[in-house]
C-alpha cells in the first residue's frame, strides 16, 4: 500500500509537546509488520500487543479500543493524550493518531525509539554509579507521578527508557494506586536480581538513603501514612533468599525504618524487640494485650497492677499510646519501664510527625497539637520508630485492620469484619490482634458465618478457623461501657480472657480540666459514648 493512499486512513491527533512525524512515517512503520514480544529481549510484553518497531520509532496500536465513528475515536484519543500531557512522564515527541481499518478506527501512538532500562542493567554489570543514578531516577519519576496523580505506573524496568541521559516512561498502561504494594514488590525484585552483582552493600545503603528521602519528599503531605515505614514493613513481609540477597534487603529495610536520624537500631531497636517477642506466640505463657492507652495514666496503672498481680511479664500494646489523654510522657515512660512491646497507632504517628489525618476530629487534632508541645524529642522519636505490625503466622497484629495497607487507619467493625476475616484466610492467618475500634470482643468465622463475641469473659479461640481479637481500650472507653479494658492471651492453647477494670476517672478529668482539654473528650471518659 502506498503511503500517499495510506494517509487517507490516518489522522494525527497530536503530540505531547511537538509532532515530529508524518502520516507517511506512521504508514511506513506499520508496513514493516508487528514485533513479536516475549519475556526477553529489547521489547518485553504480552504476545497479543500490537507493537511495530523501526530504527527510529516504536508504534503501538490499541486494538482493544475500536470505534465505528472517526469523531468518537478522535475524542477518545485526544482525551488519552491530554492525560499523558498531565502525567509529565512521556517523551515530548510522543504522538497519538487514529488509523482506519476497514470500517473501524483504531487509536495508536508513536514514540522515538529509546533504550529500555532493563537492557542497560543487563549490559553494564560493573557500572555501579550509573546504575544507582538510573535506579533513583526511576523511583523519583514513579513516586512523583503517584503523589501528583494518585495512580501508578507499570513498574517493570522494560517500561522505562533513556533518550541520552533523560528518562521517560514507555508504556501506555496506568494503574490504580495501591499504597506501595506494587512498588515494594518491584524494589524487592531489584534486590533479588541485582544484589549478587552490581547492587553492593555500599550502593544499597546509598540507594536506601535516597529512596527514603524521595518517599519523605513526595509523600510528606500524604495524610495518615509514613511512606518510608510502610514500604519498609511491606519489604519486611517478603521473602529474600539467605546470604547477599537477605543482607541487602536488611540494609534497605533498616535505613527506610530509621531514616537519616541520629538514632541507631541499638538505641531504638523496637523491631528486634518485636521479632523476639513474636516467638512468645508459640508458647502458652500468658501475654497481656493492651490497646489504645491514649495517655490515660490512672487507667494504665490499674491495668499494669493487675498484670503484675497475675505474675505476667509479657506485655503487648497494639498502638495509640498517646492522644486524647493528658499523660503522654508518663504513659510512654511507664510502658518502657515494664518492658512492653508496642506497635504504632494513628495517634502515635500524628504526634510523632505532626501529620494529621484530614478526617480527624477537631478535639483529636487539638490533643495531638497539645501532645507535640508537651513531649520531649526523645518521646516523639520513640513513637515515630514504633513498628507497624507483627507477623508470626498464624498470628498477625496491627493497630487498625489486617487489610489496611497503611496498618493503622482502617477499622474492624461489623461491616468490615467479614472482608478482614476472608483476607486472613487467604493469607494463612488464623488470628489477628487489633485495636483502633476501642470495642472489646472477637469477630470470628463459624460454619462460614461471621459471629461477634462480646459478652463472654473467656473465649476459646481454637473453636474458630479464623478470628479478629480486640482487647478494647485501656484509656478511652467506647460503646457506653466505662472503665479500662484489656485482654490476657495464652497463644498456644488459644485461651483468651477479656477484662474490664474500674479506675479513678476523676483524677484524669481533673488533669484534663487543668490543661483545658475539649469538653467532648472529658464526656467520653464519663460515658464511653462518642456522641
Question: Would you give an account of this structure?
Answer:
With 531 residues, this protein is α+β, with helices and mostly antiparallel strands. The protein folds into 3 domains: 3-112, no CATH class; 115-258; 270-527, Purple Acid Phosphatase, chain A, domain 2 (4-Layer Sandwich), CATH 3.60.21. It has 18 helices and 22 strands. The strands form 5 sheets. It has a 6-stranded mixed beta sheet with strand order 13-12-11-21-22-19. Helix 12 (328-337) links the parallel strand 12 (314-317) and strand 13. Helix 6 packs across helix 8, helix 8 runs antiparallel to helix 9 (244-258) and helix 13 crosses helix 15 (377-384). The N and C termini lie far apart (75 Å).
Give the CA-based shape: elongated
Per CATH, the superfamily of the largest domain is: Metallo-dependent phosphatases
- Put simply, the count of helices is 18
Percent in strands:
15-25%
Structural class label: alpha+beta
Kindly state the mean pLDDT as a whole number? Answer: 90
The fold-level CATH name of the largest domain is Purple Acid Phosphatase, chain A, domain 2
How many discrete structural domains? 3
* Main sheet record: 6 strands, mixed
Architecture of the largest domain in CATH? 4-Layer Sandwich
Strand order within the widest beta sheet: 13-12-11-21-22-19
Number of strands: 22
Rounded to the nearest angstrom, the radius of gyration is 28 Å
How widely separated are the two ends?
75 Å
